[in-house]
Structure formats: C-alpha cells, structure tokens
Task: inverse folding
C-alpha cells in the first residue's frame, strides 16, 4: 500500500531537481565563501546568485536577505534582534502565531516586556483595527504571520502594514507557510522583516532566510565571524542555499498551476465527503490553497489519525512542531474557545507535489469511510 502524503504544511518532500542540485553541490561547491582563493570565490558566486533569486522572489534588494538555519531562527532573529535595538518594552502579536514567535514573545515577557496577544475571529483572522487600537507610545514591534499553518487563513498583512508604515514600529511577518504558495511583495505589504524556510516548499531542511529592510536595525543572535554583513555569524551552508534557490525558482514558475490544482483538490475532497453523507465544517476562511482543515463531528482526532495512517494516509491535527502534545491546538482555541468540539475533531490535510486527483479521491473516500465507522462507536 503506497502512502498518500497529505501533510505538506508540516514538511514537504524535496523536489527531484532540488535534490540533484543539493547532491551535486555537496561534492563540488565545498569552498568557504569568505575565502579569497578560487575555490572560495566559486562558493561566493553561488551564494550571491542564490541571494539574488531570493530577493527577486519578494521584490527586495539582495543585501536585505540574511541566511538563517530556517524559520525558527529567522523568527527569533526578528523578535530578539528588534528588542535589543529598540527603546520600548511593548510588542504586539496574535494568539495564533507559530510557537517560534509565541515562545520568543513569552521569553521577552519573562524579561520585563509587555506583550499584547491579539484575538482572532471564528475564521482565524486578526483585525487590523485591533492592531491599531493596541499601539502604544512604547510599542517597538508588531509580529503577525502571513498565512496560518494550521487552518490556512491569510492575514491582512498589507492593511496592517499600511497602518504602520509611517510609524517607528517595526513590522515582522512569519511567511514560512505562505512563501512559494502565494505571491509576496514586501513593498506592497509594507513589512520590515519577513521569515522564510526552505523545507515548506520542497527544499532542504535546515536553511531559510530573513528579509531585513534596509534601515531596520537588528542585534545579531550569533557572535563569531563577519558573515552576512556581520548580521549572522557562521560559515554559510552553500549546498543547502543553492538547493533552496532551485526550489524557489520552481515554486515561482509553477505557482499558478499549484494554486489551481490545490483548490481543485479541496473541492474534490469536500464534494466526496458530502456525497458520502459525512457531516463536516471547514475551519477558517480566506485560506491558502494548500491547507484544508476540517471539523468532523462525532470523531476523536487521535484514533482518527491512527486509522487514517493504517489506511495509508498521512495527515495531522495541526502543527508538526507540537507532535506528541496532548494539548489542544492553540489556533483552534483562539478561534472557538477552550471547550469547543472543534478542538477534539479537527484534522488538517495539506497538499503539495506528487499528488494527483485520483489520490485525493481515494483519500477522501477513505476519510469518509473511517469517519462513518468511528462515528458509530
């Protein structure tokens, strides 16, 4: 039985062309980009070309791209780096952020910072008006994610950015889940900092970047060499960066095609559940095309996921970064409250490369069968 992988929001398989670039680079581009000899210059050229691709993908300038080990480091760099540079002790975020943001904010709270956690509506959306109302004279940072990793809701980042663009408040967005799926223009969004990770868009794990708008001051997290214009010490992971750049090129070239396919997968999935008489509710609105989060009344998520896995379907109950946790999804708690049934019966299906309409049909049919069987118990 071949597994149908529907957990691309957790991580994605490396694209074959990306894997080829990665493999070749491991054996051939081994120089230190900071070295002045020919071997080092080959690595530096590869690094510069990748930086150009990343900058172009979000309408930024090459020097505004800082390589990191992934989304978590990029988020931490944005938050702690801003806090160390700005005078003021107030930060605004939301209750549905990734834990890389929430736990960083909690750490700052323990050091005397005041953090406002904005609520979301039942669709999982932050209100720009709430951001405006939460602003204070000592606010230094607003950090709101672009697209939620659990329910897929796209946040009003451009609207919030418009509110903040003429202020001294730094605006950061975690775009890890949205990058490569949605078009992103940092000028249109008016963001100062933006976090990205490669493994969400068929690149290697352990590599990402932070967009840092020119003039936005950050204190470094790491101390050592003078790499990345003294912003991020440590020899750059050139093979991973080259592979990441290839993944970005493929994502940009296929974005429209992917969006159409994933929206089609959603409709197939929901139509089959409806035809099978399965009651369900979709969590969230204005979603990214690859995320489908469904509440299925009458089931318990743990046993449901086990049965799906036995049937050859990989899905999840939310963020993979909290795997094994018995706590309910903080995103669903924020949307529905601590006693809501959705906390116990919601499942996330997320789409990516390697899928077909036939596989989605099979997965939806098996989901319907399991749902009806478990609901009878």
Result:
């Amino acid at each position: 039985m071949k597994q149908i992988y529907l957990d691309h929001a957790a991580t994605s398989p490396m694209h074959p062309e990306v894997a080829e670039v990665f493999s070749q680079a491991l054996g051939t581009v081994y120089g230190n980009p900071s070295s002045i000899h020919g071997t080092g210059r080959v690595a530096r050229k590869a690094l510069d070309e990748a930086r150009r691709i990343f900058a172009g993908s979000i309408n930024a300038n090459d020097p505004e791209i800082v390589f990191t080990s992934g989304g978590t480091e990029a988020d931490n760099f944005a938050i702690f780096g801003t806090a160390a540079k700005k005078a003021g002790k107030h930060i605004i975020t939301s209750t549905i952020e990734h834990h890389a943001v929430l736990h960083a904010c909690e750490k700052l709270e323990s050091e005397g910072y005041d953090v406002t956690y904005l609520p979301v509506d039942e669709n999982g959306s932050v209100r720009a008006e709430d951001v405006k109302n939460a602003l204070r004279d000592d606010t230094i940072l607003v950090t709101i994610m672009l697209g939620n990793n659990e329910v897929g809701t796209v946040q009003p980042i451009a609207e919030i950015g418009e509110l903040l663009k003429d202020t001294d408040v730094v605006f950061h967005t975690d775009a890890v889940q949205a990058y490569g799926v949605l078009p992103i223009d940092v000028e249109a969004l008016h963001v100062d900092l933006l976090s990205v990770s490669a493994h969400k868009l068929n690149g290697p794990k352990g590599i990402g970047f932070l967009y840092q708008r020119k003039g936005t001051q950050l204190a470094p997290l790491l101390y050592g060499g003078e790499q990345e214009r003294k912003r991020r010490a440590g020899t750059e992971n050139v093979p991973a960066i080259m592979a990441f750049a290839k993944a970005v090129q493929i994502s940009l070239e296929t974005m429209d095609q992917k969006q159409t396919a994933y929206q089609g997968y959603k409709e197939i999935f929901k139509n089959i559940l409806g035809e099978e008489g399965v009651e369900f509710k979709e969590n969230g609105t204005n979603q990214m095309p690859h995320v489908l989060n469904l509440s299925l009344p009458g089931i318990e998520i743990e046993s449901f996921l086990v049965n799906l896995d036995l049937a050859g379907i990989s899905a999840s109950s939310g963020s993979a970064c909290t795997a094994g946790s018995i706590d309910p999804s903080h995103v669903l708690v924020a949307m529905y409250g601590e006693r809501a049934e959705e906390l116990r019966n919601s499942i996330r299906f997320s789409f990516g490369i390697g899928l077909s309409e036939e596989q989605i049909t099979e997965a939806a049919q098996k989901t319907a069968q399991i749902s009806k069987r478990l609901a009878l118990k």
User: Anything to note?
Assistant: The CA atoms of residues 275 and 368 lie 9 Å apart. Residues 238-275 form the longest helix (38 residues). The chain has two domains: 4-12+255-375, 16-249. The domain at 4-12+255-375 is CATH 3.90.1150.10 (Aspartate Aminotransferase, domain 1).
